[in-house]
Amino acid sequence: MVKDAVDGTLLVKKGENSYISRLEKYTKDSNVDLLVVQLSTNDSLTKDPIEGERADTIGKAILFIVEYARNTLCCPVVFFTCPYFGNEKYKKMCDYLRSIADNKGIRVVDIFRDGGFQSLPPFEFQLCMFDSVHPTLVGYIRWLPLFEEQFFRIFPRKEDK
Prior knowledge:
Blueprint: H1 19-23, E1 35-38, H2 58-73, E2 77-81, H3 88-104, E3 107-110, H4 115-118, H5 122-128, H6 137-154
Parallel strand pairs: 1-2, 2-3
Helix pairs in contact: 2-3
């Protein structure tokens, strides 16, 4: 397993640390079995459009990542969304991802819409979140069962078959 995350980066290819720039460092010889990608909350804070004619749309970045995983890395891709944090653009990004997921073969672990995390009492939610988008260690511990439940529906374990 390789975690290749860099704080403050974007899906859209801007700079050497963007999701795409880092992804392009991996080749078929990297022997990637599965690519797991966070739907970036940072992109929701930019003026980059989700869809449109421009080359640097969030939607085109998502599709590039899927095609790169499929055609270059020869592996499936799973996107996961972050917990709800009251950002309308991120909600639209999640909606876009969901709208193309089946047609493009994208698997999605959707924590954004999972009521289990959002329905925590305010005090417990504050313990789970460092800020509006970044979980604390307690948050990751709380988040993991939600993630696993959805992930293993996509990729069943041998004992679940």
